[in-house]
Amino acid sequence: MLNRLVQRLINGSPESASMMSDRAREEALDTLARHGIDAHYYLPAVGCEDNELSNALRLLGGRGYLMTHANGSLVGKVAKARLTPDERSQESRKRFFLVEQ
Q1: What backbone phi and psi angles, to 5 degrees, belong to 52?
Q2: 68 pairs with which residues across the strands?
Q3: Does 54 share its domain with 31?
Q4: Residues 32, 1 share a domain
Q5: Residue 31 has pLDDT above 90, yes or no
Q6: What is the enclosing helix (H) or strand (E) of 57?
Q7: Which residues form the domain of 58?
Q8: 49 pLDDT higher than 90
Q9: Cα separations (Å) of 50 from 41, 46, 65?
Q10: Which letter, b or e, does each residue of 64-81 get, where b requires 16 or more Cβ atoms within 10 Å of its Cβ?
Q11: CA–CA dist 77, 47 (Å, integer)
């Protein structure tokens, strides 16, 4: 099942990771975890304020392309598909800030 999904994503099938059932996604993530593999999302348009550019980044990123700057660094952000409880706590803490009165 995982191989078919990956093949569809690589070949540009309309089926995407966001269209799969929660159960199928969790089973696939469990399979990867048993093999010591983490899944990640590529978010190419994160931080891009130019609509034309962000649309192009999302379009190509959704078709399997990775975009890089001229210096070779990755455009956008890579995020883990499933965070551990510890990682979730760290992400939550990043959103908090102190307000002095």
Answers
A1: -65, -45
A2: 74
A3: no
A4: yes
A5: yes
A6: helix 51-61
A7: 39-83
A8: yes
A9: 21, 11, 19
A10: eeeeeeeeeeebbeeeee
A11: 9
